[in-house]
Amino acid sequence: MQGLKELLTLEEQRLKKIKETVDGRLIDVPDGTLRVTSSKKKVQYIQCVEDINEAGYKLSYIKKEDMALVYALAQKSYDQKIKKLVDRRIKHIEKISREYEDNEIEEIYNNLHPARKTLIKPVEIPWEQKLADWKNKPYTGKEFAPGIPEIYTKKGERVRSKSEKILADTFFDMGIEYKYECPLKLKNFGVVYPDFTFLRKRDCKEIYWEHDGRMDDPEYAEKAVRKINSYIANGIFPGDKLIISYETSGVVLNDRVIKMLIKKYIT
Q1: 207 to each of 190, 225, 232, how far by Cα in Å?
Q2: For the chain, what is the domain count?
Q3: CA 66 vs CA 42, 175, 259: distances in Å
Q4: Does the pLDDT at position 2 exceed 80?
Q5: Residue 105 covered by a domain
Q6: pLDDT average, residue stretch 84-91
């Protein structure tokens, strides 16, 4: 499963922060445990402390003025349970992380001799083959109207704006394969042409990038919002399979923002 290694690392980091918190809170705690009972609809709190000499427990009712002790004992019990669970889970994750690699099944096939590969039907198609098949599938993009300035990317493709060239050249420089204005049919909207389409390695999903470059133009902005809503209506959500970047006449496309979006949603 692509990306599981990263998820395991993030979960381990989360659990270690929790462990650090509860370990700190368990340094200076009162003795014993808390027992909660009720008598005549009145809640009573009892401190239970192990009595080594009597081989049992010493029980003491906690007075109302000692409610701080009640809170401390309750917190102690909770923190001990959290610590026990977190310690166990960290050990599990550490063991899995040592043994697991995202592409371990794919690597068995990749490491075979080329002649042997021709004899094998892999259980999973290697990523390079998936990407090549996706890339080589032909499509017809949107036509250019006469008189529009000709702008070309480093890849040699014609695009519609300088901002799209910046985006395309960034993808090219980072070695990210993309399709420019590959048609996509949206129910109850018709065919749209996302500015860029990607095949994401971590989950093999198609990801779409729309750049809305004139958001201070009311008519343009209204059309852009309608288009985004049509994506959503078809189960393509921003922050999941849809990336959106924006510009106005006063706020231009930011290279840092582009790379942050790429890192978050594509690579």
Answers
A1: 18, 19, 13
A2: 2
A3: 16, 65, 56
A4: no
A5: no
A6: 97
Residues 203-221 have pLDDT tens digits of: 889 999 999 988 888 899 9
17 burial via Cβ count (<10 Å: 0-12, 13-18, 19+)? exposed
Residues 40 and 89 in one domain: yes
Please state whether 249 falls in left (phi above 0), alpha (psi between -120 and 50) or beta: alpha
Do 142 and 259 lie in one domain? The reply is: yes
Asked if residue 118 is part of any domain, the answer here is no
Residue 1 confidence (pLDDT) above 60: no
pLDDT of residue 53: 67
> 90 with 19: CB under 8 angstroms?
yes
Same domain, 81 and 30: yes
Residue 37 lies in a domain: yes
**Domain containing 219: what range?**
138-265
Identify whether 115 is part of a domain.
no
Total-model pTM: 0.70
pLDDT class for 267, splitting at 50, 70, 90?
Answer: confident
Q: Do 260 and 142 belong to one domain?
A: yes
Under the banding of pLDDT at 50, 70 and 90, the label for residue 54 is low
CA dihedral 210, 264, 186, 128 (to 10 degrees): 110
